[in-house]
Amino acid sequence: MKLPFYIARRYLFSKKSHNAINIVSAISAGGVLVGTMALVCVLSVFNGFGSVVEGLFSAFDPDLKITLVQGKSFSVEENEIQAVREMKEVICFTEVLQENAMLRYKDKQTPGVVKGVSDDFSRMTNIKQIIVAGNFLLHDNAFNYGVAGLGLAGTLGVAPYFSDPVYIYAPRRDATINLADPTTGFSTDYAFVSAVFSVQQPEYDEKMFIVPIEMTRELYQYPPDAVTNIELKIDSTADFSAVKERIGQTLGTKFKVLDRYEQQEDYFRIMKVEKWIAFFILGFILLIAIFNIIGSLSMLIIDKTDDIRTLRNLGASEQLIRQIFLFEGWLISLLGAIIGIAVGSALCLLQQHFGFIQLPGSENFAIKAYPVLLEWSDVLAVLVTVCVMGFVAAWYPVRQIKIERESV
Predict the structure, then answer these.
(1) Which of 58, 86, 103, 349 is the most buried (most CB within 10 A)?
(2) For a pLDDT cut of 90, what percent of the chain falls above it?
């Protein structure tokens, strides 16, 4: 194995009798270099955007969320729920009651989602990090307050501490619709807007209105211990997977326990699919570039016909001769891949730490530069892909060596 590799390495860097062979080989390696660099950069940008979105979600979503497998609401006083509350790894236990509603501010109205939360909600999440106006406040001695998503606040035309409240209309659970006076079928309450938040996701920003859970229970005529889900903050020093498993075992099959990824499973799955679709598209372009190796190797085999005859006369087997040129083609792709990975990784690390490429219109976004996150698992996947493609591309002309040798 050492002899064919040594000869292939000499062929790679030695001067050929025809300068065109050197040019074609350089073009082949250059195509692999550019394609590999593009793959590393594109995958890193996808990782960066995923990391940014995950950070925004983590400021709003809990570490763990408990919901019913079937049904909508349950009692927070159930024995299983109380057992979870008393676990030492659970440092924050937030009760949540979430329902659809009609929201109105003056002459503007829109459907939305009312999320009633207990007082420790701000301690359970990092929502204060995503407040863009006002201060997080749910109630004082006189009034109830609500925290609105940025899109919802824009639709209603409301801002923190306006003198008029937002009115909440909820369908009465014990009433039928009176066509003569439809308003009798709704319960009504109001809350002043204390703050506006932005997760930069429409399901939150355009619909969510966070209010005290006591107000939501009264508005929707729920019992004083009713919740639609429980949100938990777990001690950072605890084994998260073990805690989640133990909570699941404590609750049984009636409940399901969701981590942050599972709470936004559809979104993260779509992002992962988009990332690998981009990988396969760029991989196909890279495959076309790698096929230049076929032309380069074919020309080299013709150029080295005398060498092939000499090696045969010296007793070299057909397998050894094929290995020489197979290694030659593989080295061309590997050389381009290594340089491409080095350049792509360097660009990604520079962007990751210095952000020299800015997003167009970045003044309207929470992030100013293209987010990039270099993951070495992606680098390894790119390297393996290029090596496999290079081997396949080199195998085709190498198969013809026997025919060329017999024709000489």
Answers:
(1) 103
(2) 33
